[in-house]
Amino acid sequence: MMTPVKRVNRFFLLLTAPFLGLLICMWWYRPPLELDLDVGQFAPSSGPLNETAVLKKDLTLAEGTASYTIDAVSASAKLYKGTTTAMNKLVETAKTQASRPELIYNRRISAKLGIPSEVLSSDRIRIELYKLNPGNYKAYALKIKLKDPTAMQMSLAKEATGGAETTMHAVQSHGAIAGINAGGFADKAGKRYPLSTTVIDGKYLYGFEPTFKDLSFVGLNKSGQLIGGKFYSRAQLDQLEPAFGATFVPVLLKNNIKVPIPEKWKTSPNRAPRTVIGNYKDDQLLIFVADGYNELGSSGARLEEIQNKLYNMGVMDAYNLDGGGSSSLIFNGRVVNKPSDGNLRAVPTNFLFFE
């Protein structure tokens, strides 16, 4: 498709082409002077001086024509340059105006988080770290803009099935810049297995398992958008083209609407360390990690508190990930939160972010 600037360029090229052609012809082609040798046709006063005068007149006329042509070409070139500059400015202005709604929206959601304590930006990703203190608990948030869909991945412990590793180990071994724990797990015979439906590199780890016991799937699609919810058939999930994802419970927000929290999860435990992943309507991600010193229900955040907090911050969709001692937030080579176990817990899956 031809842009406005290209159309202007083409117009002025066509406009100046005849003048340039004329100049070239005048430069390279000099017609021979043809003299009529029939002396009978000349007046007695004709001779070399008269011929010189005629020739001088012709040259003067040619010089005037060339000068006019050069001035015309110069004026056209000046107009072309001016028009091109104006068109470029119009294009830049249009781009700026088109991005204004996005900038205004980003400022609005950022204002509700406060001032970032740390910012990392590259061609692939932008991460802003915020420290939050809602009152009843302390928390941290990462606001993440994926400029490249591959800047977020999910890792699976090396043993593939039954293995586990800390989020820090996963970050370091994969060369990531940030990471959080992902889905839940079940322990069996000394091994740790991802809970329910798990997708890694676009493939189902154990096959598809329909939603049961309020479990929900959450991950990224191939376009880098957060997807999640309850799925009762593989075809239903396949339509979203998941690149990766894990399973836990419950869903907190869907389309900026509070999803009823199952009674069991309101009190079991009442308070706890939490890890939640959500997204804004412009597809930026929000990672929310609440601190707590144990899993006994006396410290950390209640799910309803986090749900209300995210709702008020304008988050569209939000999914609770594994919490308690599993909650971990790694950024720029350090553990940001305070794991309730005193140390990072080894888990089967982690969401990783790459610079």
Automatic annotation (TrEMBL):
Keywords: Membrane, Transmembrane, Transmembrane helix. The keyword Nucleotide-binding does not apply. This is Phosphodiester glycosidase domain-containing protein. InterPro entries: NAGPA. It comes from the Bacteria. Residues 174-354 form the Phosphodiester glycosidase domain. The chain crosses the membrane at residues 12-29.
